[in-house]
Amino acid sequence: MAVDRGTPNAEATAAERAGEPLLTVEAVDAFYGDAQALWGVTLKVGPGEVVALIGANGAGKTTTLRVISGLMRPEAGSVTMLGRRLDRLSPHEIVEAGVAQVPEGRRLFPLMTVRENLEMGAYGRQARARRRETMDDVFAMFPVLKERREQLAGTLSGGEQQMVAIGRGLMARPRLLMFDEPSLGLAPKLVRGIFETVTAIRDTGVAVLLVEQNVPQSLAICDRAFVLENGRTTLSGTGRELLANERVKTAYMGL
Fold this sequence. Notes:
Layout: H1 10-17, E1 23-32, E2 35-45, E3 50-54, H2 61-69, E4 76-81, E5 84-85, H3 91-97, E6 99-102, H4 114-121, H5 125-129, H6 131-141, H7 143-147, H8 158-171, E7 176-180, H9 188-203, E8 207-211, H10 215-221, E9 224-229, E10 232-238, H11 239-243, H12 246-252
Parallel strand pairs: 3-8, 3-9, 6-7, 7-8
Antiparallel strand pairs: 1-2, 1-4, 4-5, 9-10
Helix pairs in contact: 4-8
């Protein structure tokens, strides 16, 4: 699947030429009411990278994704994409800017067909204009969905539903696709397929920000990773470096 960059603004074009990160989250604080959830969270995703965000339950991983996607406003800090401030945009404007998310639990429309669920992903103007082409790309990646395109999404298996959720994210033709626990509840054989899909998406040029409970596998396929603890970024490095880190082994891999 080719990455549709649409018509980038002058700032984005200059940033890409300068080799700047695709996404930069800088010193972000976020709150749920009076309760602070993120404390100065900082991370970067480069073009065409898989970046893993790891941490225990409640560490702030999903909150970070919510801030990036515009579902939460940071109280401090910034989120930028190729020089453009995302934290000042509405969620649909952020999707139009090139960020899509595959949510935890898939969140499909169960009484709509596979095709209709996929079409819902092509919400933005640019994505809508190339909807047919993108759907063909999704069917090439997940042939079983083409066979079941007129089947109600709620009647699919868990693995097939996850394919629809990923395909729906790709229908937005994003530059960055965020995954929130994509292997949750799937059998081990299907989990392997999810990680192969993440790698395949990266190989098309789409960057991936991955939140995933399977830490060893996430670190094995990612280019870089960040560790969140109690809402703070405490550690970062390449996937290989963090796989070898004794602190990560003890805390997140049971070694």
